[in-house]
Amino acid sequence: MAAPAPSADIWHSLFNFYLTSAITISAVVFAIMIYVLIRYRSRGEANPGDPEYRIGDLSQRGSVKVAIALTIILGVLFLGLTTSTFSAMEFMEEIPEDNPDALHIKVLAFQWGWRFTYPNGKTLTGELRVPAGVPVILEITSQDVFHTFSIPAFKVKKDAIPGRINYAWFEGKYAGEYTIRCYELCGVGHAEMLARLLVMEPEQFEKWYEEFSSKG
Ligand SMILES: [Cu+2]
Questions:
Q1: Per-residue DSSP letters for the chain?
Q2: Cα 174 to ligand 1 centre (Å)
Q3: Can you give the residue ranges of every domain in the chain?
Q4: In this predicted model, what pLDDT tens digit does every residue of 68-83 receive, in sequence order?
């Protein structure tokens, strides 16, 4: 399934990287554990003095080689996970301010809903309409308590704090309908603090925006 936003693409590939690493490491650990259990199991009459009975019959040199190989593998994996995590964070944090096509939206969180202000000064409450394939830059704040703006399907999330503005951005790849919701427990209406995100075909959006702008 293709993700609906570049941010979700990056998030999913990072998630798969962590998951594959975890599964691989677990498989190796379990394989070694099962091998050791079978190889060094109690053989009944064996005498503790027998060479068969001794644990750790890898030669000194062999053990050092294994230790070096494991350290290198783990080091490379750790480095890979760290750099890809930071590059994903950088992608999310880098607001495409220089993009002249970007749509700037002011987001106001309140108990319990969302208000969106467009560059024309008009507002929509409970619904955000944006064109597909265009970066949308959000200036997020709150009028009362702490809230968190999130588009779960796009893997976008940013706190809405009264008295300060937090920036976030996203881009919808295809026309479609998604959910915006609050991720900070903010009172009895928290669970219902939803809004609709409508990603529209650019021509359709232009038409709607023109009408929206000319309205009273
Ligand atoms: Cu909330």
A1: ---SSHHHHHHHHHHHHHHHHHHHHHHHHHHHHHHHHHHT---SS--TTSGGG-S--S-HHHHHHHHHHHHHHHHHHHHHHHHHHHHHHHHHH---TT-TTPEEEEEEEETTEEEEE-TTS-EEESEEEEETTS-EEEEEEESSS-EEEEEGGGTEEEEE-BT--EEEEE--SSSEEEEEEE-S--STTGGG-EEEEEEE-HHHHHHHHHHHHH--
A2: 27
A3: 6-93, 103-214
A4: 988 999 999 999 999 9
* Ligand 1 center from residue 82 Cα (angstroms): 31
From ligand 1's centre to the CA of 88, what distance in Å?
A: 26
- pTM higher than the cut 0.90: no
Neighbours of ion ligand 1 (CB under 5 A): 147, 182, 186, 190, 193
Give the domain 103-214 fold: Immunoglobulin-like (2.60.40)
| Cα 148 to averaged position of ligand 1 atoms, centre (Å) | 7
pLDDT tens-place string over residues 165-202: 999 999 999 999 999 999 999 999 999 999 999 999 99
CA of 191 to the centre of ligand 1 (A): 7
